[in-house]
Amino acid sequence: MKQIVLTGTGGQGLILAGIILAEAAVLDGKQAIQTQSYGPEARGGASKAEVLIADEAIDYPKVQKADTVLSMSQEAFNKYSAAAGEGAKLIVDSTFVRELKETKAQLIALPITKAAREELGRDMFANIIALGAIVGLTKTVSRASLEQAVLARVPKGTEDKNRKALDLGFQLAKQAG
Q: For 74-95, how does the pLDDT look when each residue is reduced to its tens digit (9 = 90+)?
């Protein structure tokens, strides 16, 4: 079973990213559960989405030992990075996460929001870039299913930019190795 935690600030689209990742897993014929939590401020407070993906039925709907943790803000990194234990991938958006603490996880710093701003002109595509990077690094779901799930969820008229955002995420993952 793959256990993924997506963390950031309310308004960054990480709950949507969790939903998209779970839907991509279902498109791949897997079982998936997605849960979410966020602070009382909704926009601006820490938010977290958890996604569990397995080939068989999932007995417990919460992440117990994360394989992958994404932190898109310093606050989220400070609060949730400990969920990434030894052997896990801890992916941070280096645009916002600059104060790193020691971890036993594999730390991967990617300029996710910076890429969204420079290549697509808007921060709002950072969550889709992050999904591309996660899947590029972990192969948790197929690229085709991820793209299909993204295109089913994004606003009409933004499909081309979201495809480009996915491509940027896969490129970042490739550069990170």
A: 999 999 999 998 999 999 999 9
